[in-house]
Every structure is written in C-alpha cells, then in structure tokens.
Design a protein that fits this description.
Chain A: Pathway: tRNA modification; 5-methoxycarbonylmethyl-2-thiouridine-tRNA biosynthesis. The complex is a heterodimer of chains A (100) and B (477). With 100 residues, chain A is α+β, with helices and mostly antiparallel strands. Chain A is 15% helix and 29% strand. The longest helix of chain A has 11 residues. Chain B folds into two domains: 246 residues, 3-Layer(aba) Sandwich (Rossmann fold), CATH 3.40.50; 110 residues, Oxidized Rhodanese, domain 1 (3-Layer(aba) Sandwich). In chain B, strands 3-2-1-4-5-6-7-8 form an eight-stranded mixed sheet, sandwiched between helices. Chain B has a five-stranded parallel sheet with strand order 9-13-12-10-11. Chain B is globular, with a radius of gyration of 27 Å.
Chain lengths: 100, 477
C-alpha cells in the first residue's frame, strides 16, 4: 500500500539524513489483508528508524509526547492502533514542542 | 577604547538620558495614579498600585484585573474621539467593529513568559487595546535573548524581563493597564495570579510549566492559548475552550527526558517563535471578542524550513481525563501540592540542564586540572565530542572533534591520532574528553572505557567550566 509517512518536531532526527517526508510501500502483515496503524508503526520502526527507537515507540504504540495524525486527523479519532489505512493516506508523527 | 573627550561627552549624554528617563517614569506614574482616581469603581485604584509592579515574590493576591471598565470606553458605552481615531482600522472591520473593540477593552489577558513567544503576544495585545494585560516571568533579560525576544532592548539587559516588557507595552499604549508579575509561575502562586484574568496565554519554554498552566486553567475554567517553538518548527492550539481538550487529554503521560529538546540546546530561529507568538495574540483576540473560530480542537503545525502550515483536527476533551474529565477529583489543594518537575523529570526552566553522573571520580578531571596538564606539557589528546556545528562555533585548540553520535564508528580515527601523539612525545598520551556541559563527555568516556581506552577521562562541566574557571575570554554560547 502506498503511504506517505512524515516525521516532525524533532522525530526526523531518528531517520536517515533527518528526512521528514517518506513515500513508502507498506505491505499488510502476514496473513492479514489490511494495513493497520499497528502495522505501520512496526514497519516504520524496522525500515525507517535508524537510531534510538525508544524515542519513537514504547510497547506497541508511540512513546508519550508523540501525536499521530492520519490525513491531518488525530489518530485517537480514527481508531488509534487499530485504524485501517487506505491507499495514499498521509500519516504524520510529530513530537510535541515545549520551547518558546 | 575611545579617547578622553569623546568618552566624557558620551558619559554626560548618558547621564542626562538616565535622569530624563527617571523623570519621565515618575511623571508617567503620577499620570497613571491620577487617571486611575478618575475611574469609577473599586478596581481603578488597586490597579494603579499594581502598575508599579508586583515584585514582592510572595503569592500575591492583591492585584485585581477582572471586571475592568474598559480602556477608552465611557460608562455610557460610547467610544471617545481619540479612541475612535486610535482603533479606527479595527472599527472599520465589519466582523469586528465597535462591539469587538469594546469586548477587547473589557478583557484581561495573562501572558505567561516574556520570551520569544511572549514578546509579540504582549506587544500586539497592548497595541490592540485589551483592558488589562498581565505579564509573568521571573527571569532577567540576557544578551542572547535579544535575537528573538523582540520586546526587550539592549538597555534592559540584566533587568527583569517583566519590567522590560511592561515598559515596552506602556510606551506603545498608555491606555492599557499593564500588570507586572515578577515571579516564576509555580503551583504556589499560579492559582492566585491566573484567577484574575479571563484568558491565559502559555508562552513558556518548558514542559513542567506547560502541564501546570493547563491544569490551573482547567481548575479555574480559563481558555488557554498555547504556543511552542523550537528550531524551525512551531505549534499552536487553544486548550480547554469550546470542547477542546486540555494538555493532559492530549499528553496524559510526559515524554521521556531525552525527548525534551530545549531552545538553549537545540537552538531556535528568532522569527519562528515570533510567527507563533503573533498567531497566539490573534487567537487570544478571537477568544476575547468571540469573533471568528478560535483554534479549538485543532492544532496548527508550522514548518519554517519548507514554508508549510498544516492544521490538524484533535481529539475532543476526554471524558475520563484525570484533570478535565467529568469524574476528575483534582482539586486546587492537589494542584498546589503537585510536583510538576518530578512528574516530568525536567526543571521548570529552559536554562538549568539536567546533569548526569555516570563516571567514578577517578575518571574525571576539572577544567583547572586540564589547564595544569597543558601548562606542564603532559602528552595528551583532547577529544571534543560535541556535534560538528557546535565545534565550529568555538573550540579549544588543539583538539580532535568526533561527535558522540559517531564515536563508535570512528574509533580507528581516534586510535591513529593517539598513535601519532605517542610517536611525537615518546610517551603514552592520556585521553581527555570534552563537551559543552560535561554530560556527553561522560557518555563518551563510558563508551571509550568499554572499548578498551582505559585511561579516558572527561572534563567536569565541559567548556562552560573552562570559560568560568580557566579562561574568562573563552566565548560562551
């Protein structure tokens, strides 16, 4: 499935060359037909995150302080980890900022 | 510097300026006092006293900012001629008009933090004619603030930020009541201060304060206009208003300490908090006047590098939120006792860096010890593990720069350098590791010792200690 994954608020530092936008092909998990957010998280952890994975995930979800947006909508409204993604969806992972 | 005559002349002018400014300040104070006596109602007189600045450091409760009659508006509701002229461009806006300006003039807004975000917030709120503007900050103006904290001027370096900001606001609009709260906002004083205002603007720079302000606004039922900026990115939303979530609904657990970047470590492009601060002022005006749709239940994400603004939809307030949820048992007493620094494991300040303690005493030396090593020409290699862009700002010469993140893969480079040094001196050189503050150097020494560099030691306090204890001319950043 074609997805756009974006990282911001400092999370991009965990990726190669600190690249923020990634157009990727995420396959469904073995034996499943659909791609869920749970699958996207573990795919991103394995395939995109280059260092300190604990700064991205905790358990099977994102670490505290990270907002996840599916097509510009808080994933909590879309079903969180169980949200089912569709072709060309845009998923944004953004770390909350505290500076000022 | 400077010859005798010119220097003296300059001194004279500066002296005269200082005197005149003091006289002007006294006149301003007298004018404000007389003006306040003309005002009807109990608020006027108390307000004027407050304008002189609340600097007692206690959890002061004497300054009232609620229910202000509205600057410029006469009791019968009409706007006098000079105010019509002053705010004419507001009055001409069909959506805003006299009613918008009246609501603005009756509103009281508290800006927490007079820094990069708070500067444009306070300037715009003063200029646009809010009734009462409170400013809270316990810090003093520093030279390295001025590139982004545009409310402060060079002449105010070393002065309290609140005083500097309040003076600037009064210079722009003398009809606004500006109240100075010269403390750091803490659980012990937050309720008393926040209670007096209608709208709160979070323009602070650290995580525990953000949780604290949000909790306080929920307890006192105040809308919270929250902005943040770091590096080249900014974020903005309005919490606890029109069904929007509170900070805890969004972030029930605090992030790990390592994920909390600070402007004093990661840097920030001056105009980025400026952009977010301007938008915060805008949202505060919209909430105060009930004009337009405030950013409730939505968050604005600003990426300066790619010039992109994205507005996303957020969850609503959570029914089971521990703070704003229906069944919340969080009281004002709980709030005052809550340890926000412990909860987030970070300090209520951007400046105090959390320090680590990873090494035994014999693996560390002081900056003065290192100076003696140099003076005694002891063979050694100084390894600077800061990121390359830090190394380019300034460094101790000669030193080898291998950033901590690359140390493990570049150990052969270090090995080679040590061998060269040994060949040159005929002795085994010791390995001294340095960073900015003495945290990364400990991590590096720990790694180096594990990899067989048994003699590696780090300099306690890093370059900051070097600048403080050995070389006062060494540039600090």
């Amino acid at each position: 499935m074609h997805l756009t994954l974006e990282f911001g608020g400092g999370l991009e530092l965990l990726l190669e060359n600190s690249t923020k936008v990634h157009k990727v092909e995420v396959p469904p998990k073995d034996g499943e037909e659909k791609v869920t957010m749970k699958g996207v998280l573990s795919w991103a952890k394995t395939n995109l995150i280059k260092e300190r994975p604990e700064m991205f995930v905790k358990g099977d979800s994102v670490r505290p302080g990270v907002l996840v947006l599916i097509n510009d909508c808080d994933w909590e409204i879309c079903g969180g980890l169980d949200a089912v993604l569709e072709e060309k969806d845009v998923v944004v992972f953004i770390s909350t900022l505290h500076g000022g | 510097m400077g010859g005798g005559g010119g220097g003296r002349r300059r001194e004279e002018i500066e002296g005269e300026l200082k005197k005149l400014r003091a006289e002007r300040k006294e006149l301003d104070a007298r004018i404000r006092l007389l003006e306040s006596q003309l005002e009807v109602g109990p608020v006027g007189v108390g307000g004027a006293a407050a304008e002189e600045g609340v600097v007692d450091g206690s959890c002061d409760g004497s300054v009232a900012c609620r229910g202000r009659g509205g600057n410029g508006f006469a009791p019968d509701g009409g706007l006098p001629a000079d105010m019509i002229y002053r705010y004419s461009r507001h009055l001409l806006l069909p959506d805003f008009g006299v009613e918008g300006q009246r609501k603005l003039s009756q509103s009281s807004i508290l800006v927490v933090g007079a820094g990069g975000l708070g500067s444009p917030v306070a300037l715009y709120l003063a200029a646009c004619g809010v009734g009462c503007l409170g400013i809270v900050d316990g810090d003093d103006v520093e030279l390295n603030n001025l590139h982004r904290q545009i409310i402060h001027k060079e002449a105010y370096v070393g002065e309290p930020k609140v005083k500097s900001a309040a003076d600037a606001c009064r210079e722009i609009n003398s009809s606004v009541k500006v109240v100075e709260h010269q403390h750091t906002l803490r659980p012990c004083n937050a309720l008393e201060i926040v209670r007096k205002y209608d709208i709160i603007v979070d323009a602070t720079d650290n995580l525990p304060t953000r949780y604290m302000i949000s909790d306080c606004c929920v307890l006192l039922n105040k809308p919270l206009v929250s902005g943040a900026a770091l590096g080249l990115e900014g974020q903005l939303t309005v919490y606890h208003h029109n069904g929007s979530p509170c900070y805890r609904c969004l972030f029930p657990s605090p992030p790990p300490v390592a994920a909390c970047q600070r402007c004093s470590d990661s840097g920030v492009l001056g105009v980025v908090p400026g952009v977010i601060g301007c938008l915060q002022a805008l949202e505060a005006i919209k909430v105060a006047t009930a004009v337009g749709e405030p950013l409730c239940g939505r968050m604005l994400l600003f990426d300066a590098l790619s010039a992109r603004i994205r507005i996303v939809k957020l969850r609503g307030s959570l029914p089971d939120c521990t703070i704003c949820g229906k069944k919340s048992a969080f009281t004002e007493q709980d709030f005052q006792k809550f340890d926000y620094e412990n909860f987030t494991q970070s300090p209520m300040s951007d400046k105090t860096a959390p320090s680590v303690d990873l090494l035994p005493e014999n693996a560390r030396i002081t900056s003065r010890d290192y100076k003696s090593m140099v003076d005694n020409a002891e063979p050694h290699l100084l390894l600077d593990v800061r990121p390359t862009h830090h190394f380019q700002i300034t460094s101790i010469s000669p030193s080898l720069n291998i950033p901590l993140s690359m140390l493990e893969e570049k150990l052969p480079v270090l090995e080679t350098s040590l061998k060269k040094r040994a060949a040159a001196s005929g002795k085994e050189p010791s390995l001294v590791v340095l960073c900015r503050r003495g945290n990364d150097s400990q991590r590096a020494v720990k790694l180096l010792r594990e990899k067989g560099f048994a003699s590696a030691k780090d300099i306690i306090g890093g370059l900051q200690a070097w600048g403080r204890d050995v070389d006062p001319d060494f540039p600090v950043y």
